[in-house]
Specification:
Layout: H1 12-65, E1 83-84, E2 119-122, H2 129-137, E3 141-145, H3 151-162, E4 167-171, E5 179-183, E6 186-190, H4 196-205
Parallel strand pairs: 2-4, 3-4
Antiparallel strand pairs: 1-6, 3-5, 5-6
């Protein structure tokens, strides 16, 4: 019988060394991923801040380029120079005779049973007050102008009226202002077609809260 006198070999240390190497590799890989993620997030954050700063700078620069430009008045805000009449004082009787109104153009009062067609209609000649007032009762805005109005303003206003239901336009030689806008109980004189109050007046009073008969028709009436 022979005996092997070589010392026994313990496989454990080698295995532990391999396992340790793998663990270190995994740890290094995970650390690298974490670092890369942090770097990427930091870059994204810096980029976002940079772009936000550029947007703010652009806005400020744009404002600086136009220091004298005024912001348009809100559509529901007060209209400079507007005159208002007490709705309770504006009678609404139907009459078949002519009516003498205390203001020109009239802003309300007794009127003819037939309303003036006001579905974006531009009249080239003067129209009867008594029919136009009935259109105001239905929520229309009436644009009027006298002989001093510039042709360009007349054309621009006519274009606005033609594209706006519940509005009408006509010449009116007896009025004090060159261009005037009228609704039931409301009136303002404007400087021209580009006056910001034109858009304000339309926004507030075309079928606005002042309308005595909201929803009443602007068609099926008379054409002056």
């Amino acid at each position: 019988m022979s005996f092997d006198h070589r010392p026994p070999v313990d496989p454990t240390p080698g295995t532990d060394r391999a396992r340790g190497s793998r663990n270190r590799a995994v740890a290094i890989g995970v650390s690298a991923l974490v670092v890369a993620g942090l770097l990427g997030f930091g870059s994204y954050t810096l980029l976002e801040r940079s772009e936000a700063s550029e947007r703010t700078g652009d806005s400020t620069a744009q404002d600086a380029k136009q220091p004298g430009q005024e912001r348009p008045a809100p559509a529901d805000g007060p209209i400079a120079g507007e005159k208002t009449w007490d709705a309770k004082e504006l009678t609404r009787n139907h009459v078949t005779t002519d009516v003498t109104y205390p203001m020109e153009p009239p802003v309300g009062g007794d009127h003819n049973p037939a309303w003036l067609n006001c579905d974006g209609v531009v009249y080239e000649k003067a129209v009867p007050n008594v029919n136009a007032v009935h259109a105001l009762e239905h929520g229309a805005v009436w644009v009027t102008y006298n002989g001093k109005a510039a042709d360009a303003d007349v054309r621009k206003l006519a274009s606005r009226v033609e594209s706006t239901p519940y509005s009408l336009m006509s010449p009116y030689e007896g009025q004090a202002g060159t261009i005037m806008l009228t609704a039931w109980g409301k009136q303002v004189t404007v400087d021209g077609a580009d006056d910001g109050r034109v858009a304000q007046f339309f926004a507030q009073y075309v079928q606005g809260a002042q309308t005595p008969e909201p929803g009443a028709p602007c068609t099926g009436g008379v054409d002056g």
